[in-house]
Amino acid sequence: MKIGLVGCAGRMGRMLVQEILKTEGCELAGGIDRAESPCLGQDIAVLAGCPAAGLPLTADAAALFAAADAVIDFTAPAATRAHAKLAAETGTALVVGTTGLSDDDLAVIRAAAAKTPIVQSFNMSLGVNLLAALVKQAAAALGPDSFDIEIVEMHHKHKVDAPSGTAILLGEAAAAGRGVDLAAVSQRGRDGITGERKTGDIGFASLRGGDVVGEHTVTLAGAGERIELTHRATQRAIFAAGAVRAARWLEGRKPGLYTMVDVLGL
Length: 266
Ligand code: NAD
Description:
Elements: E1 2-6, H1 11-22, E2 27-32, H2 44-47, H3 61-67, E3 70-73, H4 77-90, E4 93-96, H5 103-112, E5 117-120, H6 126-141, E6 148-155, H7 165-178, H8 182-185, E7 186-188, E8 202-208, E9 214-221, E10 226-233, H9 237-249, E11 256-258, H10 260-264
Parallel strand pairs: 1-2, 1-3, 3-4, 4-5, 5-11, 6-8, 7-8
Antiparallel strand pairs: 6-9, 9-10
């Protein structure tokens, strides 16, 4: 399977190059980044710390989508919107790992998925997707009248969006467990005289610093007891491995919008 990468010069892009090179049955179709990237022209495998693959980094998205069976996108929301439209035009399978996507961005991805198969997930790791299933179960069993749900996440200082996509994914799992819409109960970034906590709210808090790959704790706090469900990512390789697994899973798949829960069969 020929896999193309967008955002190839980024932290995840470089991990993905390494992952594709070591995965049997996968081949690098090429890699692109922004037209302003200082890395344009460099070999994408060398950029990732691997022996040269003879594939220079370009900014030609159309050529990449034409050459690839599947494209993996870990970039930024505006870029991902454009790539989703391109995937629909070319019928190329797409894996979207970008976070910070708005409802409008997600609607563009959903529309593209009517024409080509797409996996979109705010977290590609097996552990977090399993954690989401546990959170849903816990939230369903421990109702809002007796247990308050708070989600705390910490990431490295370069992360540009908050709360993390994974925190939102976990919040959605908790809301689904309680049969409510997350948007209606979401409580973000408390500050000042906020008043008492409302029954049923799902709270979010974000910490940023150092080189933390990603940590998430979902707390269910009741009177006299507290449950904490935590995932700690120590290597970005887990996201890259999940994304490549998703790309391979898309081979021969019908158009549609899929998640890692589908890919992992959870
Ligand atoms: P990064 O800033 O290191 O890399 C992003 C790359 O995308 C950069 O090289 C940038 O130049 C490139 N880019 C931006 N616009 C582009 C465009 N129009 N065309 C081509 N390339 C473009 O960031 P990162 O740490 O690699 O993370 C990227 C995204 O992936 C973020 O949204 C992050 O939150 C997300 N992420 C998701 C998961 C997951 O499992 N879903 C895991 C880790 C990171």
